[in-house]
Amino acid sequence: MTKAIVVRSLGGPEVLQLEDMPLSAPGPGEVQIRQAAIGLNFIDVYFRTGLYKAELPFVPGKEGAGTVTAVGEGVSDFSVGDRVAYASADGAYAAERNVATRHLVRVPEGISLETAASMMLKGMTAQYLLNQTYAVKPGTVLLFHAAAGGVGLIAGQWAKALGATVIGTAGSPEKVRLALDNGYDHVIDYSKEDFVARVREITGGAGVDVVYDSVGRDTFPTSLDCLKPRGLFVSFGNSSGPVDAFNLGLLSQKGSLFATRPSLFHYIATREALDACANSLFAVVQGNKVHNIIHQTYPLAEAGRAHADLEARRTSGTTLLIP
Questions:
Q1: What are the chain's domains?
Q2: Measured on CA atoms in the order 87, 304, 322, 97, is the torsion positive or negative?
Q3: Residue 91 region, left (φ>0) first, then alpha (ψ -120 to 50), else beta?
Q4: How many C-beta atoms surround the C-beta of residue 116 within 10 A?
Q5: Residues paired with 4 in a beta bridge
């Protein structure tokens, strides 16, 4: 048996209930892990509410880290005692669980399991956004919404290390200060300022090369007005709701813009891609270029409270659930 959060009906945070669940031996190609920590991400909210579809009942969560306690048939690349982490295996909200090895990476020495759990999904998201979706380099000027969020704090430090001018938005003076302490050159308090006007002021009217937007409805289409001609709009989340359908002609009207809606899971779809993305993340952490910040921890049993705080924007940085 294991303790797990189970969603039996879609709805608010109250549908997240801790239950005893049977735990079988790992199957072929799987290992069983005892989890040290589980990452909380907005995608978990999307599944809980039904914005993203899952078959009921289900155990939410995609990100965690722990120690291998048993291996299934045919597993030769992982052994009992290995420290492992993952970012794309459904069912993370559990004390112990089975995971297919295709989702797993080894956690290097010097990186704690808690740090690994806090950064796999968010850190690899920052990796593909800054290095693959758009190749940030010295001279790049970018805008990153939700700069004080889990992805935002990692991305700010990483983009600065890549030589970019990093502009962010945040929703309170406290979050503005936090973002400024984590790589951002300029942070706009969107609760008090017009972020489009401030971006134009900061860039001398030129606009930015790329906008990274995980907010969605509340920042579209105004995010497009922050871009240079032929700039790139990257929509990678919907924390305020999904972006409504729009006429592609809008991209032409606003400067022959490009737009994309990427997902981490397409960037780590093969073993080679997963290892490359994870190793790139581990390297910047071990090289002290990125300090992942764990701001909140909650007992796994209080996953509902953690979701409520996340949705109410009472959290910053990374949140962990501890079994």
A1: 2-119+292-322 (3.90.180.10), 138-261 (3.40.50.720)
A2: negative
A3: left
A4: 31
A5: 19, 94
Beta bridge partners of 66: 35, 84
* Alpha carbons 208 and 192: distance in angstroms, whole number: 21
User: pLDDT below 70 — which residues of the chain?
Assistant: 292
Residues 6+ apart with CB under 8 A from 314: none
Residue found by looking up tokens 């039996």 in the block: 8
Tokens representing residue 124 in the block: 């690899």
Strands 141-144 and 165-170, by their bridges, are parallel
pLDDT of residue 258: 98
pLDDT in the model for residue 210: 98
**What pLDDT, on a 0 to 100 scale, did the predictor assign at position 293?**
72
Strand partners, 207: none
Task: Please state, in angstroms and as integers, the Cα–Cα distance from residue 61 to each residue in 24, 77, 102, 115, 235, following that order.
Answer: 19, 24, 17, 17, 21
Predicted confidence (pLDDT) per residue in 301-316, tens digit = 999 999 999 999 898 8
Overall residue count recorded for the chain in this entry: 323
Q: Return the pLDDT at 241.
A: 83
**How many CB atoms are closer than 10 A to CB 230?**
10
Task: Show the tokens assigned to 74.
Answer: 């045919």
Rounded CA-CA distance 298/305 in Å is: 8
pLDDT of res. 313: 86
DSSP lists the bridge partners of residue 318 as 294
Q: If we measure between CA atoms, which residue out of 321, 279, 313 comes closest to residue 297? A: 321
- The sign of the torsion formed by the CA atoms of 38, 43, 47, 48 equals positive
Instruction: Say what the alpha-carbon torsion angle 157, 65, 3, 53 is, to the nearest 10 degrees.
Output: 60
Query: DSSP letter string over 4-55?
Result: EEEESS-SSGGGEEEEEE--PPP-TTEEEEEEEEEEE-HHHHHHHHTSS--P
pLDDT digits (tens, 9 = 90+) for 63-113: 999 999 999 999 999 999 999 999 989 999 999 999 999 999 999 999 999
